[in-house]
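CHAIN AND CONFORMATION:

***
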Amino acid sequence: MGTLIVVEGLDGAGKRTMADTLTTRWEADGRTVATMAFPRYGESVHADIASEALHGEHGDLRSSAYAMAMLFALDRRDAADAIRDLLATHDVVLLDRYVASNAAYTAARLGESADGDAVEWVARLEFDRFALPVPDRQILLGTDPELARARATSRAADDESRALDAYERDTALQHATFAVYRDLVARSWRSPWTAISDSDDAVLHTLV
């Protein structure tokens, strides 16, 4: 059975770059690595509806934190068997975002901390009811929210298909989400966490 590792962080924090770096290092060490990114835009109807809502479609769907969280959770539920299959055939399965992102963003939207009802609801829904595999380790990229926002804005300017959505445009939400993320790290929510900067080379070697 492989090791399930998740990279978490804000939009523009550098999650994809970190995932690519880790994959390259582990494969160079002879490990087999599989990757998956959430939300699975273009693959999951639930993810696509969530994205459309965040870009102004589907009436007031976006106004409900719980409705949006459910769509993201259903995307992962549909991928649960694929994750288990990858764990059975690879040394490492590396996910770009997972359940903690839903917990952090939902709590932040509702003005709650990591010990609030929203985080517990997400855990019960995704890990218990949907039986998603629990990560062996979760990594938080500690990129400052202002830097992450600048990166996301620059990325959107260079690529029309990656226009900022309602969450990415909401600076207060990004700061609140980052605060919840840090609280999840402090609480070792659902598994051990490592907080890391994109230049913390020494830590990268200790993750598996």
User: Anything to note?
Assistant: DSSP finds nine helices and five strands in the chain. Residues 49 and 71 are 8 Å apart (CA to CA). The chain has a mean pLDDT of 91.
